[in-house]
Amino acid sequence: MSLNQLNAISPIDGRYRNKVANTAPYFSEEALIKYRVRVEIEYFIALCEIPLPQLKNFNAAKFDALRDIYLNFETADATEIKEIEKVTNHDVKAVEYFIKKKFDALKLSDFKEFIHFGLTSQDINNTAIPLSLKEAMNDVYVPLYYEILGKLDELATAWANVPMLARTHGQPASPTRLGKEISVYVQRLKEQFNLLNDIPSAAKFGGATGNYNAHKVAYPNIDWKAFGQKFVQEKLGLYHSFPTTQIEHYDHMAALFDTLKRINTIIIDLDRDFWTYVSMDYFKQRIKAGEVGSSAMPHKVNPIDFENSEGNLGLANALFEHLSAKLPVSRLQRDLTDSTVLRNIGVPFAHTMIAFQSSLKGLGKLLLNKEKFEQDLENNWAVVAEAIQTILRREGYPNPYEALKGLTRTNAKINQQSISDFVDTLEVSDAIKKELKVITPSNYTGI
After folding, report:
1. Rounded to whole angstroms, how far apart are CA atoms 381 and 404?
2. Phi/psi at 271 (nearest 5 deg)?
3. Percent of the chain, pLDDT > 90?
4. Nearest in space to 314 (alpha carbons), one of 251, 360, 252, 271
5. What is the H or E stretch that residue 429 is in?
6. Residue 163, SS3 per DSSP
7. In 3-state terms, what secondary structure has residue 79?
8. Helix extents (H) in 302-369
9. Using one digit for the tens of pLDDT, what is the confidence trace for 411-441?
10. In this predicted model, what pLDDT tens digit does every residue of 78-95 receive, in sequence order?
11. Active site amino acids
12. What is the DSSP letter of 89?
């Protein structure tokens, strides 16, 4: 770990930097600047393609050189823009001046006043940020999500036929199968991911108050709404929000954060369940040579990965909650409260990525302790009472629930023999008695 990381205030840029370094190209200050440059360049090219009268002589062969400004964007370029910002005290204006200098270097000075033509800074921010978020989702989040889903699917298949004592309210309940319980998480995650895919990555592009005022007054005969929609949707691959105020209303982004929060909540539920299964000795954990489980107790192998995941997901969800509640609210046509909040969207995203990796690590350590599963089932023969009383109901036996309640709520030990003895006292046919005696905690697992 570098000295800078040791002095980082946030563990995202310190302790956990190696786990989330792949999010920096989307959420860092440099990344935001680069995305702004990208939007400004693509916007200028789009104006050339109308073409505006003053840009009809722009050499289209220069488009590649313009795109190289953001394709080859480096830290030195971001640093230069930050130096300009010290003078302008405006981050987007600094980007505009930086690109104008590039135009001068490319001998395109005659066209540079059409950089940022008719725009407000929010036209750049409200396209650059959704674009960076969309690409982070596709490039970083989705692959890791599928890793977790794949691992859970693998475990659900491997342990599909492992009978397990269920617990409702913490008490022994009708048996289930371990693979089925894991498949519950698989299905929950899939359903929320499907909702996630339905949320558009929305962007605003329409000038100072969303009406293309400056564009229309300069070129009244151009359909600027159609231009904006084509630019946002075809050039940037985003959904064009219209009408808007000066800012995108962030309703879709809020929906995204709410859905990410729900997925995280499912993983928290999973983390806590597996933590509990480990504490119940249902699983052992793979031991890595040299690792220390406790500074004081040498025997311990703690389920720290599930704990780390739960803690990071809690942080992520607290921030996602604030983002989704705050961003859609802005005074009149705009205030600046969204600006500082938007700079933090990478924080819950990074905590989520840390958590996903921790959950994956925890799942990868699990070693099935089949004997413990079998022992718990054998120690809880009372759970077959539901099956017996249900068959008795089918046969029209009088008060079957009450009969089983009397048997199972005594302090006497309930085991296979006591169940068998009870069945022998029932006034039913031998065939029914045989059917009842076949039922065990291990085979009474449903479908």
Report:
1. 12
2. -55, -45
3. 88
4. 271
5. none
6. strand
7. helix
8. 304-326, 337-342, 346-365
9. 568 899 989 988 998 999 999 999 999 999 9
10. 999 999 999 999 999 999
11. 169, 294
12. S
